[in-house]
Amino acid sequence: MLDDLGRSPHFRSLPQDLLAKVAALARVVRYRAGETIFSQGEPCRAFFLIRSGAVRVYRLSPDGREQALHHLRAGHSFAEAALLSIGSFPAHAVAVEKDTELIEIEGRGFLALFHSEPRLASSMVGSLSMWLLSLVERVEELSVASAGARLARYLLKLPARGAAGPLSIELPMAKKELAAHLAIAPETLSRLLRRWQDRGIVAVQGGSIEVRDARVLEALADREEDG
Amino acid sequence: MLDDLGRSPHFRSLPQDLLAKVAALARVVRYRAGETIFSQGEPCRAFFLIRSGAVRVYRLSPDGREQALHHLRAGHSFAEAALLSIGSFPAHAVAVEKDTELIEIEGRGFLALFHSEPRLASSMVGSLSMWLLSLVERVEELSVASAGARLARYLLKLPARGAAGPLSIELPMAKKELAAHLAIAPETLSRLLRRWQDRGIVAVQGGSIEVRDARVLEALADREEDG
DNA sequence: CGGTGCGTTGACATTTCTCAACTGTTGTGG
DNA sequence: CCACAACAGTTGAGAAATGTCAACGCACCG
After folding, report:
1. pTM for this entry
2. Are strands B26-31 and A202-205 parallel, antiparallel or unpaired?
């Protein structure tokens, strides 16, 4: 577990002795697919680091609709900002894959350690700032980019196999969830992929997407109008 | 200037000696309305605290359109996350009011101080986290809420005079800028206010808005459909 | 004054959502 | 091993929200 913690961006630069103190507050908890990790409004009993599996963080709007905020995988952490500021969870979190293993770092103890060990803060500021910038990016994206542009940007950010010609991409989540992440209706996602496939820009095979013309895709990502 | 710094959420909990070290890196710079503070992509020479006036932070999308990210007023700070992570400005910033006074905290020196003084990090983590949560809020808003709901939420968050009956609100920026902030077209903003005025929910007089029926406005803020 | 730019209004185009139906897959219990 | 339920995904038709374009009044500033 020390290894897992040491690999997290938050703790990467932490000296061993301090890392051990953090580890003393941590335990591994395993979740089943669909199982709730925490609910919006609850006091922040811990923050979390994903060891394996995947987690969806979402909010419920007053009229009951669900908005995906993050889709996180192994190596990511979440709820640290909530713990360090307001002290209660501002969203819901559920495991989306079976055998999702989380490292839970106990909140109260961590806060105490955090206040007595300023080095802990220094090590976390960089990664928190980074996350902040990525959110700024996302705000911009949601504001100006059309559904098509958001999808194109998303696909281009995904790790791809095949350097030269067609790139091979695996969607890291179900299309329905991807649609939620991009803030579009599942039907719209389906139609976009269909249209692009008809134009020979991509080839879709379930969750596998082959990018046949990265140029055009990049153009779609850049202009606000729909593809 | 020590006072200004000490009032900032970032430095509120800082001991005097350390505050003085930060102050030694700071200088006050005055900007005229419309003057550029920094541009996207530049190395992060400093971060900023607003002493008076107002600042607009925005990005330019590849096709030249402008997306407002923040509209900040006295007491707010900006560009700290950029300095602490990527080291270059991820957006443009301009002063929007004449006599906008900024406290500029020199970047290189601050980073050095930051690394030698862990207490600095502890004092900033809380406010960074807070900001992070507000961005999460904004992502959610942009994703699920209609234009009308976003406007209603915005109005309700603004400080208002008049406790009991009709609330009196002053828009802190021009309607055109407000539209950009809400990610809607200026025409849509105009039409929404018109419609609400016709229904007796608000009374608009230039930049002054009187909320005549807060109940209805709150309902509009909660449902995703348009008012 | 005359210009510059904001705010408003109207007409129209477009994107995206909603609703509904249908298909295919997956997992479960008999 | 099959039948069935549940659900993701697709497709179509129509509706709704919002953007675009254009014209105009109006205030502010030189």
Report:
1. 0.90
2. unpaired
